[in-house]
Write a structure and sequence with these properties.
The structure holds two protein chains of two kinds. Chain A is an alpha+beta fold. In chain A, helix 1 packs across helix 4. Helices cover 44% and strands 13% of the residues of chain A. Chain A is elongated, with a radius of gyration of 15 Å. Chain A has a three-stranded antiparallel beta sheet with strand order 1-3-2. Chain B has a seven-stranded antiparallel beta sheet. A four-stranded antiparallel beta sheet of chain B has the order 7-6-5-8, with no helix packed on it. The termini of chain B are far apart. Classes of the chains: A alpha+beta, B alpha+beta. Chains A and B meet through helix 2 and helix 3 of A and helix 2 and helix 3 of B.
Chain lengths: 104, 226
């Protein structure tokens, strides 16, 4: 199932912590514990599939580069919640027979 | 307080990796550059750069013509690497057969011999060549090429009226020879061990077709004893 690797789920979790807010890349990296080499390709994939929207924020400090921000789209919110729910073992269910999920 | 050099170096490496020679890189590369400023300290910065560059490799789209050119270069280099040892006719290792080239080359020294490219590049003054003379393998130095006037005056060799600097000779070596003009398609050779070399002084010029190879360098011993 696409978009359900443990790393992607971490990103979803972090973004869903504040679904309507714009998130910074550095913050996501620290929250998810993913290095940029892992995080940014995930973000790029989500953007490509219109699950994540982006914007640039110029820095208020002169000479500093602008920052890139991310927010789940409507479709993205739906998919993220979907994938996270699918990953959680159902309450009361036998952990061994819980829906197996394949990392993609 | 100035910024630690390691942090500055990390930033420079990231910017270079993302932008190369352009003023701007890919969107994701620029995003990484923007976030770099959020890192705290040098090691966080280094980690961000190292991991960020990995991300840039993955998400960056290299222009098609650059990709093709790079692949062509890799293919050519790979072919060359495979072709050189496979083509035993191009180069080889030879053992020095005589003392005619002492002290430059001693009997038993192993040298790398170019058997092919000298046909295209031609021979040069000073080249050490392997020659086949009446079935024997000789090793001599090229002194005169077609058209050169070779003569000896005051114990030294002169080429076209000018004394040639033969710093490879043992100190005090005296060369005596009769003047000769090298005909087309032939060349004049001398062994560095002038006292013990049978060469163009006695036998005259040789056809360049006698050359079987040009010595490229020492293989064994690694440092020749002088």
């Amino acid at each position: 199932m696409p978009d359900s690797s443990p790393q992607t789920l971490k990103v979803f979790g972090s973004l869903l912590d504040d679904p309507s807010a714009w998130h910074y890349g550095y913050g996501l990296s620290k929250q998810t514990g993913l290095a940029p080499g892992t995080l940014y390709p995930i973000l790029a994939r989500l953007v490509e599939r219109d699950l994540l929207e982006t914007r640039w924020e110029p820095s208020d400090q002169p000479g500093r580069p602008p920052r890139h921000l991310y927010r789940l789209t409507g479709d993205g919110l739906e998919l993220a919640r979907d994938r996270l729910a699918a990953a959680k073992p159902r309450a009361g269910a036998n952990p061994i027979t819980a829906t197996p999920r394949t990392a993609s | 307080m100035t910024e630690p050099w390691l942090r500055r170096a990390a930033r420079r490496a990231l910017v270079l990796g993302v932008r190369g020679r352009s003023a701007r890189g890919s969107e994701w590369g620029e995003a990484l550059i923007g976030e770099f400023e959020e890192t705290s300290g040098s090691w966080d910065a280094v980690r961000w750069t190292v991991s960020g560059l990995r991300a840039t490799r993955r998400t960056m789209r290299i222009p098609r013509w650059v990709r093709i050119r790079r692949r062509a270069v890799v293919a050519v280099v790979a072919l060359a690497v495979i072709a050189v040892p496979v083509n035993a006719y191009a180069a080889g290792v030879a053992s020095i057969p005589s003392g005619a080239m002492e002290p430059t080359l001693n009997i038993g020294d192993r040298v790398l011999v170019d058997k092919l490219s000298f046909h295209w590049t031609g021979l040069d003054h000073g080249d050490i060549v392997l020659m086949t003379v009446e079935g024997d393998t000789w090793i001599k130095r090229v002194i005169g090429l077609p058209g050169d006037v070779i003569a000896c005056r005051g114990g030294a060799v002169h080429r076209n009226g000018a004394r040639i600097d033969e710093d490879y000779l043992r100190a005090g070596t005296v060369t005596e020879c009769s003047a000769v003009t090298v005909p087309p398609g032939e060349f004049y050779v001398l062994g560095d061990h002038r006292e013990a070399s049978n060469d163009s002084r006695r036998l005259g010029t040789f056809a360049t077709s006698a050359v079987t190879g040009r010595v490229l360098g020492h293989m064994w011993p690694v440092w020749p004893a002088h």
